[in-house]
Amino acid sequence: MKRILLLITATSISVALNAQNQLVIPSVLNGPNYNLTLQEGTNEFYPGITTNTMGANGDLLGPTLMMTKGDNISITVDNQLMEPTTIHWHGMHVAPQNDGGPHSVIAAGTTWNPQFEVMDKAGMNWYHPHLHMMTDMHVSKGIAGLIIVRDTEEAGLNLPLTYGVDEFPIILQTKGFDANGQIEVHTEMDTSVLVNGTPHTFTDLPAQVVRLRVLNGASQRAFELGFSDNRTFSLIGTDGGLLTAPVSLTRYRMAPGQRADILVDLSTSQGQAFQLMNFGSELPNAIYGALQPGMGPGATIPNYTSNPLNGSDFAFLDINVVAPTPSPITTIPASLATFTIIPEASANITRTLTFTSAGAMGNLVGPFLINGAEFDMATINYTVPLNNTEIWTLTNQTPIAHPFHIHDVQFFILDINGVPPPPALSGYNDVVLVPAGMGEVRFIAKFENFANDTIPYMYHCHMLTHEDMGMMGQFIVSDPFSGLEEQSASSFQLYPNPTNGELFIATMAGETNFETYEIFDYQGKQMQAGELSGSTTKLSFEASNGMYWIKLANKEKKVALKRFTIK
Question: How many structural domains is the chain composed of?
Answer without folding.
Answer: 2
